[in-house]
Amino acid sequence: MITEVADFLILEDKSSTFEGELARAAKDILAKAKGYVGHKILSSHETPNRFLLVVEWETIEDHVMGFRQSEAFIEWRGIIGPFFKNPPTVEHFNVRKE
Amino acid sequence: MITEVADFLILEDKSSTFEGELARAAKDILAKAKGYVGHKILSSHETPNRFLLVVEWETIEDHVMGFRQSEAFIEWRGIIGPFFKNPPTVEHFNVRKE
């Protein structure tokens, strides 16, 4: 299992529209991808146009080689891309087991 | 409930020591703070010296006015601070309810 963290900075006047569109696209598109396990959307308290999308995948390949190379990704990026103020930063993380 | 996300960039040769110290200090110090709910430590796949500490607090004040103003915070920062390559970035997030 691997955790993707995508960090989005959104055009200031589009933040509330973005949040709804992201939630909808995550449910309709992302959640249907192979290897998808779950996701959360977090909105920043200090920076109202900053959002984190945290996605759990079975493997990193499911995200990078699977979803990102798929037709579904083009649709996904077409919905959320127009809201970006800057290109998002995306990294993958391992959760430390206690 | 509010989610703190602290983003740490660590001195390159100190990453594995840091991860153990952070885990220990989180259990021994952070987890005893008033309003602490839970935490996770994430290590980056792409950037081996990058870590996220994700902490759930009952309220933002429990973190900012409570923990950060406490003696325990001085001890906490004394343990993890020497490992920092750059000052960490910390923000608070609301988790979107579906």
Explain what the structure shows.
- 2 copies of one chain form a homodimer.
- The first copy, chain A, is of the alpha+beta class and 98 residues long.
- Chain A is 32% helix and 33% strand.
- The first copy, chain A, has helices at 15-28, 60-66, 71-80; strands at residues 2-9, 36-44, 50-57, 89-95.
- In chain A, strands 2-3-1-4 form a 4-stranded antiparallel β-sheet.
- At the A-B interface, strand 1, helix 1, strand 2 and strand 4 of A face strand 1, helix 1, strand 2 and strand 4 of B.
- Strand 4 (89-95) of chain A pairs antiparallel with strand 2 of chain B, so a sheet runs across the interface.
Number of strands of chain A: 4
Which word captures the global form of chain A? globular
Give, in order, the helices and strands of chain A.
EHEEHHE
The chain-level structural class of chain A is alpha+beta
Percent of residues in helices of chain A:
25-40%
End-to-end separation of chain A in angstroms reads: 15 Å
Oligomeric state as shown: homodimer
Q: Please list the strands of the largest sheet of chain A in the order they lie side by side.
A: 2-3-1-4
Q: What is the overall number of helices of chain A? A: 3
Please give the most extensive interface between any two protein chains, plus how many residues each contributes. Answer: A-B, 24 and 24 residues
Biggest β-sheet of chain A, characterized?
4 strands, antiparallel
Q: Residue ranges of chain A: pLDDT <50 for 5 or more in a row?
A: none
Mean pLDDT of chain A: 97
Give the DSSP E fraction of chain A (strand runs of 2 or more residues).
Answer: 25-35%
Radius of gyration of chain A: 13 Å
